[in-house]
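[worker-b] picked up task from shared queue
[worker-b] task type: protein-ligand structure
[worker-b] ligand name resolved to MTE; SMILES cross-checked against name lookup, match
[worker-b] sequence length check passed
[worker-b] input payload:
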Amino acid sequence: MRKELLAIITVILLAGCTITNVVSLNSSEVRDYQGEDLSSINDFRENSIKGPQYVNIDNYTLSVKGLVNNSLELTYDEVLNNYQAYSKVITLYCVEGWTAKILWEGVLLKDLISEAGALPEANTVVFTAYDGYTSSIPLDYVINNDILLAYKMNNVVLPPERGYPFQVVAEDKWGYKWVKWVTNIILTDNPDYEGFWESRGYSDTGDLDEPFFD
Ligand SMILES: Nc1nc2c(c(=O)[nH]1)N[C@H]1C(S)=C(S)[C@@H](COP(=O)(O)O)O[C@H]1N2
Ligand SMILES: [Mo]
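[worker-b] inference finished, payload out:
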């Protein structure tokens, strides 16, 4: 009798496991999350400097280099499989006046950077992108605010127009700091580095609580 009961309980537990261990199929967009309404991934205005980029993931690598102990060259799968995933709802504010509140999922930039090992003099993180775009953010801001390098938005893989494979989620900074199609993460000791829009008059700090023109 006892053995039978044990067998039944085991079967129930196993069944429970198979049911809860959900394999997610190509998911559709999440629009409400923990009681919050999200924007749609289609609410963005596409006005990137050279239009949407279509990155061939087979030839793609993400570099972490510059003032580091050992440079990294990572494939898309290595980034997704070898680092802890995090998610957070964060709103992007473009200087043109539109916003998008999105559930972002990605890895922490500080995890990539700590694996590369930032040299003591490094204080600024420069991002370069497939379309030639560049921008920068301070290293201590990246570390202290758990800044994400996103590969999913609202539970779907970033579409090409939104920066596939990776976009910087520069929380509390203007949209022009949110580099899409990231190819290089470069540590420098130049806090005055000016990226594409910064060199055309936009504020280098890019903080949302400050005007975006210098
Ligand atoms: N590589 C790249 N990243 C970029 C841009 C760009 O032109 N090229 N534009 C920036 C700007 S101005 C904004 S507001 C955000 C969001 O732009 P999107 O609506 O075109 O996705 O991406 C930022 N990242
Ligand atoms: Mo923007």
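[worker-b] attaching auto-annotations
[worker-b] Residues 28-41+53-200 form a domain with the Sulfite Oxidase; Chain A, domain 2 fold (CATH 3.90.420.10).
[worker-b] releasing lock
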